Amino acid sequence: MMRGDERKGLFIGELARGCQLCFPGAKAVIFVTGTCDDACFYCPVSRERLYRDVMWVNEEPVSSLEELVIEVQRMGARGASITGGDPLTALDRVVGVLMALKENLGEDFHVHLYTTGRQATHEALRALRRAGLDEIRFHPTSPAFVKAVGRAREVGLQAGVEIPIAPRMEEWAKGIIERAMKLGASFVNLNEMEIAEPNARALLARGYRESRRRPFVVEGAYEAALRVLEWAQEKGYPVHFCPASFKDSVQTRNRFRRLAELDRRWYEEPTPEGTLRWTEEIGGKRVVVEAHPTRERTRVELGEEPPYD
Fold this sequence. Notes:
Layout: E1 2-5, E2 9-12, H1 17-22, E3 27-33, E4 55-57, E5 60-62, H2 65-74, E6 79-84, H3 91-105, E7 110-115, H4 122-131, E8 135-138, H5 147-154, E9 158-165, H6 170-182, E10 187-192, H7 200-205, H8 221-235, E11 239-242, H9 244-263, E12 269-270, E13 276-282, E14 285-291, E15 297-302
């Protein structure tokens, strides 16, 4: 039976544990490296990160495992997702991250990882399992990489597949889902294809356009996902559709709310949008400043009363 709604997502079966923690914003997003052996035309990763060997936690750059753990603790995370680039191009670093998270936050701290599967050898997967990885999600840039699902299951990892969806990709998606299920995948996630500055030119060249009804996503991606979900429901496959609106208005906002509440200074007040507000005096005038928890200012309003006594 299909459950959910258009804004938050639709799913058949049970949501993966990683998704359950993402919804309330309880997972830290660890961008472990921008290096990658692929060049997907739809990749939305920003130019300041893609193909660059940099680390970020949520929206903060970090340069060491110590800084990384501090940022994860700062938001009171109950889990983390490791992403890139392709994290397995920096396997030793990922193993170090996993060990640091488990050592500092406990064995119950849930971690999932995204990778294409290109570098997912038995040796690499065993190293991830020993370091404490709980869940692995393959984004197979080639149908051949779906075989990595079987290898992950052999070493004892919970494995799933996560792929983009847009018009003209339905049959490709069905083929990936069929192969993944036969290899023992626990779930498949369909991500509504986003259109952003890094991938806009490539998408436009392929005839894709931005939706008039759903900003920043490809026109018809939602309808394409529905067609695949209806097929999956007939097959009884556990498939989850994650709309771009969920990431922006639910997941990210909830993560900011969590961080704002835990990290606020004595003079700051969290807002329902996940920002922080405080009052300053500038040029003899009292102003209200609003910023993300990163302290990057989003708005300054003149002549308002402070939001606290």
